[in-house]
Specification:
The chain is globular, with a radius of gyration of 28 Å. It is an alpha+beta fold and about 600 residues long. The longest helix is centred in the middle third of the chain and has 22 residues, at about 250-270. A hairpin with a 2-residue loop joins strand 14 and strand 15.
Length: about 600
């Protein structure tokens, strides 16, 4: 506990009844001071906020100051609920500052703070952060963001950024890392914004899916040439093909058909240029050009996601409105606030901002975005048996002198299942090294997220074909964490064979993945030693109260194995402890009673 001797000397010479020498010291330092038994020097206990999950959801939680006052994140926005009120004794003094004998004293008891319950699902948050860690390793990107939302309620199930920090010792990190880039950073969205252009064009009935557009490779607007990403162009296409192929020339023409008034009506309705009012501090408004000053070239470039800046939370909220049938909802990070007795003192319900599309238009666009994944630029997101809708994006970054050569933002935004969405998600990768197209590096991340999150949410993949074709394929059951003999038996029940790789006792991975569609009799590769994930540590979840299958499924999502002990129905304890960090592939012993 190093202290500056000169500063300490100045402190001790002050004419005060009480001064702090140092606050929030650790236990070893406190015991050392106590052993010295210095006259006039004592210790007092103080409360201190502790974050047992360390970096997990750091940008959501934020952190507190030395007096436990909220300084960032939910800690700041809900500080008045969390902090409570200290107690005290009110004493009367005379004009000379002397306590009046036998005067009335009044005791004000302390009031405890309330409990704030977030919408964040810890398992989904862990899955998102695991994927972000892999992204930084695989792409060497400067930063990355993932947000997962429930589209019918606006609840944020996961919000994660990289790089991040540990709120237990936030002062050890650069303040730049405290910044919640998911809500505070505006960027040119590129082709993901074509979701909004499509919605406006369909909503205003300026195009039909069968309308034809010709793309020679470029188009000139007010003397500026806008190129399509495909050299030589796409030729003649329907509007559906324009969206599937993310054709810049086609979207420029659609934007010009819309015109400034109609296009801006949808830009404003979808919430761009203003905060979403999520309950987190530091939200940016984004940047939208003044409608009275826009020119045709501005409309042309905005139609392809340039000349406009959005935040990740703005874009996801807008796309979620397409997913839920046309209702723009305020994104919510807090579900409810309860007092110490458990009574709900503030509950949060879906908060409708505006209806931005009629149900039929939203349904039409959902079908288009599903085709983007099935046949277009989003094919790397496709999961057999699951209907996924979305849009890729690749945007060159803008600097003070214009577009910066070699610096890109890759992204994918979408929802699943496409017909009845339970999640809407956005993946943003900032300044990747090497491949930078959204369809190449962001789409596979979305795919991995969707596969694991939907499995965790018990969304079962369904064949899309007719009944006869459904009978010709089998849905692969999940057998990760099963004993090998049990896994083989489970596959046999489904009419599938197996091939065992390595010599472990339990299955650690399988190919094809759970939920895949395969012909009857297919052999499933079962790996028994190789961990599912090979980079970064994993936070161990709390399994208390779960049955064996539920515990095994959650651990499997995180790349961990289970060693069950006991014959009971519910998990009562575990090794390693909840919140601890372990390597992928670690075996967690879970005791059932």
């Amino acid at each position: 506990m190093a202290l500056d001797a000169d500063r300490l000397r100045v402190k001790l010479k002050k004419h005060q009844a009480f001064i702090w020498i140092k606050r929030k010291v650790d236990e070893s330092a406190a015991m050392a001071v106590k052993r010295l038994d210095l006259p006039g020097v004592g210790l007092t206990e103080e409360n201190r906020r502790y974050y047992p999950q360390e970096n997990l959801a750091a940008h959501v939680l934020g952190f507190t100051g030395i007096d436990s006052q909220g300084l960032d994140g939910v800690e700041l926005t809900f500080d008045s609920y969390l902090r409570g009120r200290p107690g005290g004794i009110i004493v009367e003094y005379d004009a000379q500052g002397q306590e009046i004998p036998n005067a009335t004293q009044r005791y004000a008891p302390p009031i405890e703070g309330q409990n704030v319950y977030l919408t964040i699902d810890m398992v989904i948050q862990q899955i998102a952060e695991r994927e972000l860690d892999k992204v930084l390793v695989d792409t060497q990107a400067q930063a990355a963001t993932i947000i997962v939302m429930q589209p019918y309620s606006g609840e944020i199930l996961a919000l994660a950024n990289r790089p991040d920090y540990n709120p237990n010792n936030f002062a050890d990190y650069s303040p730049k890392l405290w910044r919640d880039i998911a809500i505070s950073n505006a960027y040119e969205p590129g082709s993901t914004f074509k979701v909004i252009t499509t919605a406006a064009a369909l909503g205003e009935h300026v195009v039909t899916l069968e309308d034809r557009f010709f793309d020679p490779g470029s188009v000139e607007v007010q003397g500026r040439t806008i190129h399509c990403w495909k050299a030589g162009g796409h030729g003649s296409q329907s509007f559906l093909e324009v969206v599937k192929n993310s054709c810049n020339v086609g979207f420029v023409n659609v934007g010009l058909r819309l015109g400034a008034e109609a296009f801006y009506r949808y830009i404003n309705k979808f919430g761009f240029g203003r905060p979403t009012n999520i309950d987190l501090p530091g939200e940016a408004r984004g940047i939208v050009l003044d409608e009275t000053k826009v020119t045709p070239i501005n409309i042309a470039t905005m139609a392809i996601g340039q000349s406009i800046a959005v935040t990740p939370i703005q874009l996801l909220t807008a796309v979620a409105a397409v997913a839920n049938g046309g209702e723009l909802l305020r994104p919510q990070i807090v579900r409810e606030v309860r007092d110490k007795s458990g009574t709900v003192i503030r509950a949060f319900r879906p908060d409708l901002v505006a209806r931005v599309l009629d149900a039929q238009t939203a349904e039409t666009e959902k079908g288009i975005l599903e085709k983007v994944v099935e046949e277009g630029t989003g094919k790397n997101t496709f999961i057999e048996g699951l209907r996924i809708a979305g849009k890729t994006g690749t945007a060159q970054k803008v600097g003070e002198g214009g577009y910066v050569p070699g610096k890109y933002v890759a992204s994918f935004v979408g929802f699943a299942p496409a017909d009845k969405p339970v999640i809407a998600m956005i993946v943003i990768i900032d300044e990747p090294v090497g491949p930078y197209y959204g369809g190449v590096i962001a789409a596979p991340v979305f795919r991995a997220l969707a596969q694991d999150i939907l499995q965790y949410l018990k969304v079962t993949p369904q064949p899309e074909s007719a009944a006869a074709e459904e009978q010709a394929h089998v849905v692969v059951p999940g057998v990760i964490n099963f004993l090998v003999a049990d896994a083989v038996n489970e596959l046999q029940k489904a009419g599938l064979g197996s091939r065992i790789e390595e010599s472990g006792a339990r299955v650690t991975d399988q190919v094809p993945k759970p939920g895949s569609l395969v012909p009857p009799g297919s052999k499933i590769m079962l790996y028994t030693l190789t961990p599912r994930y090979s980079t970064g540590e994993v936070t161990v979840p709390d399994l208390t109260g779960l049955n064996l299958r539920e515990a095994a499924d959650i651990l499997a999502e995180l790349g961990l194995s289970i060693d069950p002990s006991g014959t009971g129905e519910k998990a009562v304890r575990q090794e390693a402890l909840p919140g601890s960090k372990v390597l992928p592939g670690t075996v967690i012993t879970v005791y059932f009673e």
